[in-house]
């Protein structure tokens, strides 16, 4: 009998991509939607589908065991602001125990605690990228438009700054203009950061990278159609992402939209790697 993969799912297309890749590899898939607004195709594609609020950690763990899940991956957008927005997160006792045991509520602290609990249950937490390697672009200019010399300089500067905030486990995205930081991503997420920064510096550059000590089991950086839409709305000129370590979701749609609005999209290697 084949293995069963649990897909703890947030918003966006990535959970669907994981389910499809896992099924091709022979896995039975059990998708659990953790927040409202997961992709409509997720329920259609997964062998089994559940919707369980992210705060009901005990129920999530029980469901994984009941479904015979051997391995699990956590994929899709779940912004940390739900911890602070009344009514969205209603934690059960298991969630409260985990949160109360933490020294802080940094992303990595929370995720590592969940990983440890799942591993203690005998459920292996899988590398997020295992079925998504085709989504990670290699180094180069991905858009039709080439960056101007000034945009190249902002991309290099922004890339370095994104690495620095990633090292502090604050976020993965910065918006820069003329080598000045317009916005830094925190709990509000990438799109809100882009909207804020782009409006402060018209023609700004977005930079998104993996953390210096990125754990591939969770929170891999992602760029997609929504990212491009936020850039267009706020007047940004382009984006640089880390080559080979960023998931470019719905690539064809995202690049087509960027090209139609003459945005520049670049995948850059980490010069410190």
From TrEMBL:
Residues 138-266 form the LpxI C-terminal domain. It comes from the Bacteria. Residues 5-135 form the LpxI N-terminal domain. This is LpxI family protein.
